[in-house]
Amino acid sequence: MSAYGHEMEREYSAQSLSRRGSSEMGSSHITETGIFMSSFAAMVFVSGLITVGVSMLSLLVALAVMLQTCESRNSGVLEMHRYKDNYEYCRSFALHAELNSLDADSLPAICRDVDRLYVKEGQYGRDLSITVGMAEEFFGSVRPQVDSRDIVLIDADDLASESLFSYYLIHRINEDPLHGSSRDPDYLRHTFARKLYLKLQSDGWPLILFSRKPEKLRNATTEFLISMGCPGWSSLIMRKENEMQMGFQEFISGQRIILQREGLRIIAVISSRMDALRGPYLGSRMFKFPSPMFRHSMENHVESQVQKSE
């Protein structure tokens, strides 16, 4: 081969190497640190970074949700503890207020919410049920004697809601005995008192009712009790005009003395109010229906309005 041929061959080889090097440089990457990385490896690396980033973000979101949930639960637990503490305090306060005949308005303001929840959350209904259960258990263990001198005294004002009676007295409209709400304390008390009343009546116990209302309301009270599903009592004790200024505790104590002198045996007295559960001749048992804390102030107001309307 001539010298010119060798020179052409060397030139052709150099051009081929130059083109191949240029092509390889176009399909690869060199990082700033000098590390060679192909396109596929770069794509895998970037995808991995994105996956790790998404995973970390998801983890942070999950942790935030968990922390918020724990905070809410802790807040609920603290709120429940606070309610229970307030409930115990307010119930103790209410008990002493009732035992000492204090005005319900003397209760702390914080107890108003507790009183509302006491009825709304169902605890009042459960307490009423416990009282009725205890009474039924007692009367299930005794029977009235054949001489018919055993009697049970029941507070008629628990059987007949004061608020409904006031409405009936003004409008002379009979309300449905089942009308009411499980969140209304008067309706709840009537429901459980009526259940016990009908149970004692079916077991043959002579029942004597007593009320704080005046004698002049006897006909309206009788009609209202019957409309509320409570007929068939032996007698209904009410206050005469000259007895209205007398404290009810003094009045009903005197009535029990009269019943005792007539040869009747008082087996039990059933009421939601302490004025009926004090004094002599209370019988073998006393059963007190529980009361919402502020109920008595409302009853006193309704009772005064009833008297004014007459």
TrEMBL record:
Keywords attached to this entry: Membrane, Transmembrane, Transmembrane helix
Transmembrane residue ranges: 40-67
Family annotation (Pfam families): Acid_phosphat_B
Record field: compositional bias (Basic and acidic residues): 1-12
Start-end of Polar residues biased regions: 13-25
Cross-referenced InterPro entries: Acid_phosphat_B-like (IPR005519), HAD_sf (IPR023214)
Top-level taxon of origin: Eukaryota
Keyword Transmembrane helix: yes
Ranges where the record places region Disordered: 1-25
Tagged with keyword Transmembrane helix: yes
Name this polypeptide is given: Acid phosphatase
Gene source species: Sesamum alatum
